[in-house]
Amino acid sequence: MKQTVLHKVLVILFLFGAMIGFAQEDEAVEFETNLSKEKLGLNERLRVEFTMNRDGDNFTPPNFEGFRVLMGPSQAISSSWINGVKSYSKTYSYTLAPTQRGVFTINQATIVIDGITYKTTPKKVEVTAAVDKPSDQLTADDIADQNLHLVAEVSKSNPYMNEAVSVVYKLYVSPTINVSNFRPLDNPTYNNFWSQDIPVTSYSVKNGTYEGKSYRYVILKRVVLYPQKSGALEIEPLSLEITLDVPTNRRDFFGQPIYTQTNKTVSAGNRTIEVQPLPQEGQPSDFSGAVGSFRFQVTTSKSTLKATESLQAVVEVEGNGNLKLFQLPALEMPGSLEVYEPEYNENVRTTLSGMQGKVSNNYTVVPSFKGNYPIPPIRFSYFDPEDETYKTLSSEEINIEVTSGPLESSGGSIPIASNNKRPVQATGSQFHFIKLSPDLTPRTETPFFGSLNYYLFFLSPLLIIPLAIIFGRRREAIASDVAGRKIKRANKLARKYLYKARKAMGEKDEFYIALEKALHNYLKAKLKIETTEFSKEKIEALFTKKKVDELATDGFISLLKNCEMARYSPFSQVQMQQDYDKAIEVISSLDKQL
């Protein structure tokens, strides 16, 4: 009885499988192209799906002329049973971005099914001008491209040679996305420019507009350039790798958007400026390359003095311009004045508008003879880029009166020396007679020889020599222990910045800057690595090598990440207190293990 039932079941299953096989053999192969739309704007996206009802091999897509592939191919397979009939579908999907306007053809795709090659039917797509509100769903990379911009703002596109040009690199971020981290990939080099960086001490987020839209932005780098040659000069781009959180179309239980993380490489792009040469027409013969707006003067510390006394003569240029890139005019002095080589002084600060301040040559002058010595005027010429003209300034004549001293034997007018120096001449009044009578008296005190003080002075070197040897060796040991000094200094800095972080509790930027410096200096002391070598991967590798447990390693890395994220994300005082307590705990744990 059981064998009969089993036999019937097997027969039914066989017949059922045969029916399905015949149904599949009778089913015609379908291979077709489906488009998300047949007409789209230049700023929209096109989804292309190639669907087949039988599995195949060697799928070959078209070349998608007129489009750029943003994503794909992605595969999707579905199968189902409906009323005893199996349904199968396999799809290859692409997301495309149009590269220009016009009518384009999505050409044939091919696939091999059961040894036969099948082709899709070509389809036309019309690309129009950009639309105000794209209707398609963008990928995370698309959203990042539209909401993240690295811009190099150049103050002047056609400056003169040696005229200041400022470049400010700004990262514009839309309020809809969040930047969690970034690192520079390639810093620009400024060939054919004299450059001066203006340090950015903290990355403060500000509100602004870019291309008419509201953005948050951060100034990453500021530099002032002085072109040193004329013609077309290129400013190389700044490139960054950025990790950011992008919203998706999904929402959580509370209705808040769910974010996905992606990495993007952005660049400020090459910038070219046309540098104008300084005009030759009207250029003064004493022009030394000064460009800007300046004031010029020659002053002396005194106008009346005695022979062999000294005075200070100062040649000074003050104003805005390339103060470090030109020579000051030389001071011409009468030959009867002894003039020493000048001391150069510089008090210049650099802002986005260029160099500001003053430079000077300070001459020490010593007269040898009585008389009046006029210091003739000297000239200083510069080019003013605002007025596009050369300007020449002249100092006033200064008269130096020497009231007492020997008279110039030559008499007459006082010549101007070509080298501003004159040999020193001795006069009779400069020497005195030596006293011949010493007026000495005999000593009646106890003789020094053989006294207690004599023996103390005689033996003291023998006592001092061992102490000097011990002290010298100790100083040599301390001086040779470079690594030890660095470790002590780093330990001291770590404690200093940890204390500073505790004092700055509640001030987000100051707290996390101090905390990050404390962590870095602690590692510098414990692992003997330079600050330039810091990276999370290297720290993890070093901790693993030192057999530090995962809990301490993860805690240290998470603190570093929090210090970086604090630049762009709001952190409460509770979070700061937690991070400070965690830093104390992690450092204590590392002290025991290292």
TrEMBL record:
Any Pfam family hit: BatD
Keyword vocabulary terms for this entry: Membrane, Signal, Transmembrane, Transmembrane helix
Signal peptide: 1-23
Transmembrane domains' residue ranges: 452-471
InterPro entries linked to this entry: BatD
Top-rank taxon: Bacteria
UniProt-recorded name of the protein: Protein BatD
